[in-house]
Amino acid sequence: MTHSPAQACSLRVLALAALAAALALSACGKHEEEKSDALSERPVLVTQPRVAAQSQSRDFAATIRPRVESDLGFRVTGKVVKRFVQTGQKVKAGDSLAALDENDFRLQREQAEAELAAAKMVVAQALGDEKRALALRKNGWTTDATLDRIRATAQEARGRQQRAERALELARNSLDYATLKADGDGVVTQTLVEPGQVVGAGQTAIRLAHSGDLEAAVSLPEDFVPYADKGAATLTLWSDRNKVYHARLRELSPSADVATRTFAARYSILDSDPKLALGMSATLSIAAAGHESVMSVPLSALYNQGGGPSVWKVGADGRLELAPVTLVRLNSDAALVTGPLTPSDQIVMLGVHKLEAGRKVRVLTRETL
Q1: Average pLDDT over residues 259-278
Q2: In terms of CB atoms within 10 Å, which end of the chain has fewer, N or C?
Q3: Domains in the chain, start-ordered, CATH in brackets?
């Protein structure tokens, strides 16, 4: 079937018009689809992990304490009649600190002296009887049984004298123990008795800080105990933060405190000076850098729904994927983690609990806000 030139021209015009309409509809649909995808994308604020050294540097509140601190108490029971020292007073070894009423102890000593005197008289009489019995037995005027009985009596008398001597020694010691004396040079840090108070044997009466080396007393959390002696320790006083002292671990408790669950530690101050005083507050810094590198991420980037910590990572296609991580330590403003993270990754730092895996997101950074 043939068409005239006019009809052919009309057909071409219609075909071109239909093609143009189809192209317009296609472009409109593609635009609507792109607009819908753009509306479904969720904007998220992202950041990049930073490589950080697994530093175990920590600061702890410390108190300046003496190397040796004794809790002194009377070795006998009695009533305190006088206290010779006050808190903060310096004393020398052998100085009197407090005294008990000595009347009963003097009576005990006098009783022991009388017992010893009587025992000595009995011994003297028994020895005389034994000497005479030996002479009689030698001449045949007595029997062996009588001699043995006299010898036994003499032996008993000597034992009685020995017991009396020990009793007198104990009585003298008790009288001497009625006065509490310093067992070394130092400073009285606490007085726990007052005149008129009745104290028992062994009850703490005076606390004495011995002169000598000073130490920093701290309480370490259980997660830091393995690093307590792994690095350099420095000490700064709260009253003078410009001066830095060097310290070294001397003692670490093998068990945790039942209340605080911390371990008591003592650090010797290697370069102490007169500025250090008992009871001062200080900060002990322990730096023990680790060799393993970790990633530092914001605290707000951590996501945990009971299956362990993780972070939301934006994939190459712009969709979210959950990356499990291992928590190493929490700092004041960041978390140190290990896991499938690199410094070039983009992780979501806000609103992590409102996201789901596979969601298309629109990346925002602090620079683009």
Answers
A1: 91
A2: N
A3: 42-54+293-364 (2.40.420.20), 58-67+212-287 (2.40.30.170), 70-101+178-211 (2.40.50.100), 102-176 (1.10.287)
